[in-house]
Design brief:
Radius of gyration: 25 Å
Shape: globular
Largest sheet: 4 strands, mixed
Organism: Flavobacterium fontis
Number of strands: 6
Keywords: Membrane, Transmembrane, Transmembrane helix
Protein name: Dolichyl-phosphate-mannose-protein mannosyltransferase
Number of domains: 2
Distance between the termini: 46 Å
Strand content: under 5%
Order of helices and strands: HHHHHHHHHHHHHHHHHEEHEHHEHHEE
Length: 549
């Protein structure tokens, strides 16, 4: 590792050491770690608990849960994810440099500011999307190594395996192996494409062999399909880029005027189509960056992505630039896969690479303005972040004073707000009060079981309708045992949970049934305590696929 790379990681981790302490939402932060802890304790997904995605992320982070010391474990898991995010950023940048035959000016500075742009309020807990980006980055880096080597077949093997590893983090990354096949077809003979396809088949075969050693393939497929509708996927992957903005009229009116001015200019100047498209790409990119800084980084990343798509179309128009178009295409494809989500539908986690491709287009057309553009970009992103930053699903930074190490040694070093701290304290007291029973927390706070070293009797930690394998009946039958005590968040009963629809049963029908039909024993400031109760009322049979909020 050179001094330049070392300085990148030192500065990155210095910032991460502070940011990783700030805030702990009660929403989905414990979702992945909770299930990874189950695996570390000997349980297996699909067989012993419900999980709606492919399992690569759970097995990866179960290693960290198993080997790291208990004290501050959650904090150190976040730091490791920060380090891995920084590493994948460097892999993308190195691959782009090699693929475009271009040395990125001030690469470390652009890398740091790109991470700031990309992360924003994402709390950097272990998550399938960041793992999918990591495996994709490794495959991309190896793919660009093929450009200047005769050992293509050796690299192709690992490219295939890592592209399959990316696909095994979440369903939206299933398209990543296909993207690598298409990009390879633009650069290499069909024989090389065939080798890549065979290596991907090898990776898929290894996964299926491991999977079927502990659960039938049908069980895996039933868990990982049926949770979203086709219309929701189309909305997330296509329509979002054109309609899902806070100020839609304010967004499109100036942009359409800009496109109209571009069209008039093209007709008047009669310049080459390639140059015309590159200028249009810069218009979208500049507007997207301004929108990101002034209004929303997440929304701005969509406009920036659209601009890079236009830039790729310009490159595809000439045979000499199709190699570069393949680089653009892979970055865009992975960013698109990362953005197919009903919870976080933005390509922003690939923001560093998108910004660098924008700068490459800029220096092609206006080389003398590249340094100025970099300076303005850095200043703008810093100012925009300072203005917009807010910890995910938490109070502002100046209210995060309460160390959760007093609740659980695993959470040592994590600072939270007063309300969240009070909820954790109440859970700790309730657990001790009902130590002769098995506690269940509903519907959120999935981190509870991991933090308190308690085995959840239910096969699901997070009791939202789209996280329970469409099987509320099984969960309620288990919860009804008199050996259990259920702690229901009052925020659910009041209807003020994050992203909660009007009807409680559309959010968590399991929790709604408990509130309606189980016997209430006690009430605290933040929780309603129910005993396991015989199931006299009719049970809900299934939960619906998740739809748009």
């Amino acid at each position: 590792m050179g001094v330049r790379n070392l300085s990148f990681y030192l500065v990155l981790m210095a910032g991460a050491a502070y940011i990783a302490t700030q805030g702990l939402d009660l929403w989905d932060s414990g979702y992945i770690i909770g299930y990874s802890w189950r695996i570390a304790e000997g349980a297996l997904p699909y067989k012993d608990f419900f999980y709606k995605g492919p399992p690569a992320t759970l097995f990866l982070w179960s290693i960290g849960v198993k080997v790291l010391p208990v004290w501050g474990q959650y904090y150190f898991l976040k730091l490791i994810n920060w380090l891995l995010f920084g590493w994948q950023t460097q892999l993308w940048l190195a691959g782009i440099e090699r693929g475009l035959a271009w040395k990125i000016p001030n690469r470390n500075l652009i890398g740091w500011i790109g991470v700031v742009f990309s992360v924003q309020f994402f709390p950097m807990y272990p998550w399938p999307t960041t793992d999918g980006l990591l495996y994709s980055a490794i495959a991309f880096y190896l793919w660009t190594l093929c450009f200047k080597t005769y050992k293509i077949n050796f690299y192709i093997l690992w490219i295939g395996l890592f592209s399959i590893a990316a696909a095994l983090t979440k369903q939206s990354f299933y398209a990543v192996p296909v993207a690598f096949l298409c990009a390879t077809a633009l650069r290499y003979p069909w024989r090389t494409v065939g080798y890549l396809f065979l290596s991907q088949l090898l990776g898929l075969g290894l996964f299926l062999g491991a999977l079927t050693s502990f659960t039938p393939l049908e069980n895996f497929l039933s868990h990982t399909t049926g949770e979203t509708t086709l219309s929701a996927l189309i909305y997330s992957g296509v329509i979002n880029y054109f309609t899902a903005y806070q100020e839609i009229e304010l967004l499109w009116a100036p942009l359409l005027c800009m496109v109209l001015a571009w069209g008039i200019w093209v007709l008047k100047m009669r310049c080459r189509w390639e140059k015309s498209l590159q200028l249009l790409a810069l218009c979208f990119g500049i507007y997207g960056i301004i929108w990101a800084i002034v209004v929303s980084f997440h929304e701005g990343s969509r406009l920036l992505w659209l601009g890079i798509v236009i830039g790729m179309m310009a490159l595809l128009g000439t045979k000499t630039n199709r190699d570069k178009a393949s680089v653009f295409g892979l970055v865009l494809a992975v960013a698109w896969c990362a953005a197919i989500s009903l919870g976080y539908p933005f390509p922003i986690l690939m923001g560093t690479s998108l910004l660098v491709l924008f700068l490459w287009l800029l220096q092609i057309q206006f080389p003398s303005y590249t340094s100025l553009a970099q300076g303005l970009l850095i200043i703008g992103i810093i100012c925009g972040t300072a203005y917009q930053y807010h910890p995910y699903a938490e109070r502002p930074l100046n209210e995060l004073h309460y160390d959760l190490g007093t609740v659980s040694p695993k959470l040592a070093g994590i600072k939270t707000s007063k309300v969240h701290y009070e909820k954790w304290q109440e859970l700790q007291k309730l657990q001790r009060q009902f130590r002769h029973k098995t506690p269940i927390v509903a519907p959120n706070m999935a981190l509870f079981y991991y933090a308190m070293d308690i085995q959840n009797p239910l096969p699901a930690d997070w009791l939202l309708n789209w996280e329970i394998h469409r099987d509320p009946k099984t969960l309620l039958e288990i919860a009804s045992s008199t050996e259990n005590v259920i702690f229901v968040e009052k925020s659910f009963v009041r209807g003020n949970e994050h992203f909660m629809p009007q009807k409680r049963e559309d959010f968590s029908m399991v929790t709604d049934y408990i509130v309606r039909h189980f016997r209430l024993q006690q009430e605290t400031k933040h929780f309603l305590i129910y005993n396991g109760t015989p199931l006299d009322a009719p049970l809900p049979q299934t939960s619906s696929p998740r739809t748009l909020p």
